[in-house]
Amino acid sequence: MHDVTVLEVPAQLVVGVKRTGHFSDMPAVMGALFEFAMSKNAQFVGAPFALYYETSKEAIEKADAEGTAVLDVAFPIGAPIDESGEFKVYEMPGGTMAKVIHKGPYDQCEQAYNAVFAWVIQNGKQIVGPVREVYPNDPRAVAPEDILTEIYVPIA
Fold first, then answer.
1. What is the radius of gyration, based on Cα positions, of the chain?
2. Taking a C-beta distance cutoff of 8 angstroms, is the pair 133, 53 a contact?
C-alpha cells in the first residue's frame, strides 16, 4: 500500500541539466551533472531529483523507444555557482504536491505511480507540471530493496 500525502514544497535553488535520450541514460546524465557541480564547489543542500514530463505508460514507452525522453535532472544547492554550457542554475518552482514513497528498485515504481495518479483523480485534482522523483539514498550504497524514491506530483 502506498500512502499519499499532500504538502507544500518550497521553491529551491538548483543546478540542473536537460537532455533527451533513453531513460537508461539517466545515471550518466546525473553523473555528469554531479561532476560539473563538484568542479564548481557546489554546496549540496538536498537530494538529487529528476523531472518527468511523460506521464502515461504509453508516452513513457514511446519516448524511451525513440530516444526522445526528456532527461531533466537537478541538485538543490545552497548558493549560486557559475553556469557552463548545458549546466544551468535556476530556481525550481515550489507548490502543492501529492507525494508517495516507493521502496525498492527503480524499475518497480509503477504501483506507487498508479496509487498517486488514482489519488489525483479520486480527489478531483489536476496535474499541473512535471512529476518529480527525488532520490534520497544512493543505489550504489544500499541494497535494491532499500532504494527510496519520493514521487511528487504537482497538483491544483
1. 15
2. no
Give the chain's residues under pLDDT 50.
Answer: none
Supply the range of the domain harboring residue 34.
5-154
Query: What cell numbers appear for 50 in the block?
Result: 529528476
Q: What is the dihedral of CA 140, 145, 148, 151, to 10 degrees?
A: 130
- The set of cell numbers assigned to 115 is 496509487
Residue positions counted in the chain:
156
Residue-level pLDDT at 1: 72
pTM of the model: 0.93
Q: How many domains is the chain built from?
A: 1
C-alpha–C-alpha distance, residues 45 and 78, integer Å: 6
The residues near 13 (Cβ < 8 Å, ≥ 6 apart) are 76, 77, 78, 79, 80, 89, 90, 91, 92
CATH code of the domain containing 11: 3.20.80.10
